[in-house]
Specification:
Low-confidence stretches: none
Largest sheet: 4 strands, antiparallel
Distance between the termini: 57 Å
Number of helices: 7
Number of domains: 2
Radius of gyration: 26 Å
Number of strands: 6
């Protein structure tokens, strides 16, 4: 960058030359290629099935009646439902009318009877337990410390959880999402914090 002052006076101006691209070091090229080879491209449902084979986390999704299910391909329906909810895409992209486990009625049934707060918490606990046994996670920490942080979202409509928080956020209606992550980088809990209405 240089400062250009016109002859005979006048306003000075900054002249910024375009920077040329910096070459990529050979070590970075090697690292990219090696990492890419270690992480093959797979579909997200396949990844969930693989994680289940290591942890058994899908077994936590029991029927609301506590009876043992006789439903065929329940795991397929559960994985489709988790992808739909986790990616916030709704059921339509995962529905396949030609696959009994992926029909709209089956996914709605599984959503109402298997995917509940208690089963999701139990599945998450299985994942946390499995992660805590990984040597790298143990190097990060013992899993007994946590970082808790809140995210505030402005919500333009009235709901049971929204309200102003004048002390911290002013008078716009909103909701706070509280998230906890342990020192092994595992999500251990989250909740919506209801806004207090001014007295």
């Amino acid at each position: 960058m240089e400062v250009v002052v016109p002859e005979g006076g006048g306003r000075a101006r900054l002249s910024v030359d375009k920077l040329g691209a910096v070459g990529e070091p050979e070590s970075l090229t090697w690292l990219k290629a090696t990492t890419e080879a270690m992480l093959p491209r797979i579909d997200l449902p396949d990844l969930l099935f693989e994680v289940h084979s290591w942890t058994g986390f899908l077994d936590a999704f029991g029927h609301v009646s506590d009876r043992r299910t006789r439903m065929e391909d329940l795991l397929v329906s559960l994985v489709a439902l988790l992808v739909a909810q986790g990616c916030n895409i709704g059921l339509t992209p995962v529905i396949d009318p030609n696959n009994k486990a992926l029909t709209r009625s089956r996914l709605s049934h599984v959503d109402q009877n298997y995917a509940r707060a208690d089963t999701i918490a139990a599945a998450n606990a299985a994942l946390i337990t499995a992660q805590s046994s990984i040597e790298l996670a143990q190097m990060w920490g013992g899993g007994l410390l946590a970082s808790v942080d809140g995210l505030r979202f402005v919500v333009p409509v009235k709901s049971i959880n929204t309200g102003p928080s004048p002390k911290y956020y002013g008078y716009k209606r909103g909701v706070t999402w509280l998230n906890a992550v342990n020192d092994q980088v595992a999500g251990i809990g989250a909740m919506v914090v209801r806004a207090r209405h001014p007295a």
